[in-house]
User: What shape does this take?
Amino acid sequence: MTTPDPAERPPAETLVVGAGIAGLVLARELVLQGRQVRVLEASDRAGGQVASVELDGLRLDAGAEAFATRGGTVREYLERLGLADRIIAPRDAPAWLHAAEGQTVPLPAVSLLGIPAAPLADDVVAVVGRRGAWRGLLDALLPGPVGSRLPTVGALVRRRMGDAILEKLVAPVVEGIHSTHPDDLPVTAVPGLVHNLLRENSLGRAVARMRIDAPAGSLVASLEGGMATLVDALLAELDRFGVPVEYGVRVAEVHADHVVLASERDDAEPEVRHGHVVVAAPGLVDPADGSSAVQTATHLALLVLAPDPALAAAPRGTGVLVARGTSVVARALTHVTAKWATVRAAADGREVVRLSYERPPSLEQARLDAEALLGVSIPSDRVLAGEVVTWLRAARIAVTDDGIPIVGEQVAGTGLAAVIAHARATAERLGAPDDADSPTKESTP
Assistant: This one.
């Protein structure tokens, strides 16, 4: 048998398993490195947690609705994709808090993740009570190093400011933003917090310093037409470069040089696809430390409401976070038409709200929660359309450097900035294929 000349062999494909944002970014970067790339996606759509639905003629975000602007990572990549003119900022208005006592009040004006700069300020006392506020003031009397080595935001705030500020103020904010309790949020997830605590000898003053030093502008941004615009742009790029994206392809096993596809029948011969494998979907690679790769579910309810002049004229900021212990089941509400001017314009007088839950809600529950959080009557006949959406978030896993390359939030952490940066770094590390010269690097916009 004659062995083909290596120079005559077709270059091996790189198989990217998963068409979430990480997989799409990685595929684009790899094809720019000169690789032949194919993307395999188990579902019938790309984008992962960046998804959209159409309700009453409106295209609305049903997953991630914004990205963090810190560091400029996402903005820079959007500029590369030609989306710079589509970036939009939210309305400059504070969020509100539905407190444990049932009242709905604005969040403290000077705070970070709910951590107040001035514990005795009236807007803090309104949430935690005077006794909790006085306990928070003890932070100013403690030496800076106290609590600075604690591993989580919850432990740090509890040590310096007490349980009332942690549970009534910080926890609702952290759970609304990070979908986890502060006791489970690493303090490293808030860059600069410990550094400024040691610098200012007070957690409150550290928050004030970080707010002063923060760059002008909003901490988050989105895209005109919704975050799914990013998915559209990435798919258009892959189509331009001839990268196939196959949907409905479920991968059962991954190996460094091939994948085994899931069979519909037990007696069917499994299909094998050969190529250089990169995993961009959770649950396919066992963690190096032997732990289980758990995914957590987030449930959203989207409601389109009939025009309401009172609600349009006096919204409760851009949304409401919910403390535990209230009669409201939702964990947070975003008043979408109050937050994003482009949605307000497209809605043509209608109001759009989205609520997040720990368990799948009914649309009736969402209506009742929206009524309580917004402080207005929302009769059933004023709900023009609604939908409940569930999506999964991957937990962080431990991996080895010599294993199958993995991208996505399971290794990069949460947030588009982390996911995009890690996917691009992985593509750079993998580099051009051994059997082909790399084309011109990033010669496209």
